[in-house]
């Protein structure tokens, strides 16, 4: 159980580090970074699932092998199970943040936290499922009203005519220009 929990936590750290450094700080110099900047720049772009699986399977096999080597087969596998399940949970939560409206306090928080990263400050809020590592590494920001450029607005935020749905007016506004995903200095 300890190894499984460490695996869950381990994924949340990987989620933070991969997003912050491999995606953003790399500024488009690797495939993952280019895919991620595309996700920022377009209204509805997600890396195709088959490509994610093609990366995730060997990565998880490597985590399992390393875990077994360091902590024995049982603990190594439990760690990998926690890591892998949390990875899948992250994928689902992230996609739904863009495609579906929030249903409860956690979903509302997650969307605001992540969409501030998209539209407010892409150098903040690199964690998606938890604010833990943003707090540890001092990149956590608590947004006020989040300005969303109309051409990038999530389908759940606006009605058929493109107007902001009133139930989200306390959290979001339409119209601010996006901040570049690749600022010149940082
Ligand atoms: Zn996103
Ligand atoms: Zn990002």
Topology:
Layout (H helix, E strand, L loop, with lengths): L1 H24 L5 H11 L7 H23 L1 H27 L5 H15 L12 H5 L9 E3 L23 E3 L12
Helix pairs in contact: 1-2, 1-4, 3-4, 4-5
The structure holds zinc ion (2 copies).
Features:
186 residues; two-stranded parallel ribbon; disordered C terminus
Notes on the protein architecture:
It is a single chain. The protein has 186 residues and is mainly α. It has one domain (2-174). It has 6 helices and 2 strands; from the N terminus they run H-H-H-H-H-H-E-E. The chain has helices spanning 2-25, 31-41, 49-71, 73-99, 105-119, 132-136, and strands at 146-148, 172-174. A two-stranded parallel sheet has the order 1-2. Helix 1 (2-25) crosses helix 2 (31-41), helix 3 (49-71) packs antiparallel against helix 4 and helix 4 (73-99) crosses helix 5. The chain starts with a helix and ends in a 12-residue tail after the last strand. The protein binds zinc ion (ZN) (2 copies).
